[in-house]
Write a structure and sequence with these properties.
Rossmann fold; alpha/beta; 7 strands; single chain; 7-stranded parallel sheet; binds nicotinamide-adenine-dinucleotide; 15% strand
Length: 255
């Protein structure tokens, strides 16, 4: 491997990816494992499909079962991962939920569910990992998953828009504090991707057509579309990138 290819290698690294059993999280697990990382995938249920896909690319994958709706999951994850690896190098905060309702009808319970997982958990899991990184001064990589609704208001998803706009701000805030410790905090903003998150939209033919018509690339994104940005932000290639959100959106934001 030449030195430029080495820039993108994750050989010898350990990554935690939340929401590893489906969709974009599954794609990110496959990408990081294919680039050489041992990936610990966090999910509420078994990650058998992800494990099979990682095996196909000759990667290493270990599942960690945890429900991230409760902050107590953080200690469980940290203890379990640290019992199986010397050091965590990469954290991908991917797990997220969306609740669709007119703003006028949103309940406190729905609001809290979305903000707790998409925002509060992201902060405190990042803090837990960064404590180790600041202690050993060996640096690390945090990749948050933002959204087009980190930039735009969206329709009928006010808690989700609030959470993802917050994650974009949090990415900058943490990057500013931790860059000095060689910790890169960046984010990926996926556009409209064909996963469980968008099943309802894709099943509504009017919304589906309107969205497709607005995407310059003319198609929904896929988990595979996340590979390049995920490897880049997890690797030495992004060593001087701090607090930036990369859109992987088929041109949606450029429109
Ligand atoms: P998805 O629903 O397939 O993935 C969400 C993941 O989060 C799942 O693996 C789910 O099991 C996990 N999760 C949810 N609640 C959890 C909990 N309490 N504990 C542990 N895990 C939990 O959809 P996706 O599109 O792959 O979403 C991944 C991320 O990408 C989310 O943060 C989502 O908001 C974001 N995103 C998706 C799109 C899109 O168009 N699909 C666009 C922008 C951002």
């Amino acid at each position: 491997m030449n030195s430029i290819q080495n820039l993108f290698s994750l050989a010898g690294k350990t990554a935690i990816v939340t929401g590893a059993n489906t969709g974009l999280g599954q794609g990110i697990c496959v990408a990081l494992a294919a680039a050489g990382a041992h990936v610990f995938g966090v999910a509420r249920r078994s990650c058998e499909e992800t494990l099979n896909k990682v095996n196909e690319v000759g990667g290493q994958f270990t599942e960690v079962i945890a429900d991230l709706s409760d902050l107590s999951a953080i200690e469980k994850i940290m203890t379990e991962v640290k019992s199986k690896t010397e050091r965590i190098d990469i954290l991908v905060n991917n797990a997220g939920i969306i609740k669709r309702a007119d703003a006028i009808d949103v309940t406190v319970a729905e609001w809290d569910q979305v903000i707790d997982l998409n925002q509060k958990l992201v902060f405190f899991l990042s803090q837990a990992v960064a404590k180790d990184w600041i202690a050993d001064q060996k640096g690390g990589k945090i990749i948050n998953i933002c959204s087009m609704l980190s930039y735009q208001g969206g329709i009928r998803v006010p808690s989700y828009t609030t959470s993802k706009s917050g994650v974009a701000g949090l990415t900058r805030a943490l990057a500013n504090e931790w860059a000095i410790h060689n910790i890169n905090v960046n984010a990926i903003a996926p556009g409209y991707m064909a996963t469980n998150n968008t099943t309802q939209l894709r099943n509504d033919s009017n919304r589906n057509d309107a969205i497709l018509e607005r995407i310059p690339a003319g198609r929904w994104g896929t988990p595979e579309d996340m590979y390049g940005a995920a490897i880049f932000l997890a690797s030495d290639a992004s060593a001087y990138m701090n607090g930036f959100t990369i859109a992987v959106d088929g041109g949606w934001l450029a429109r």
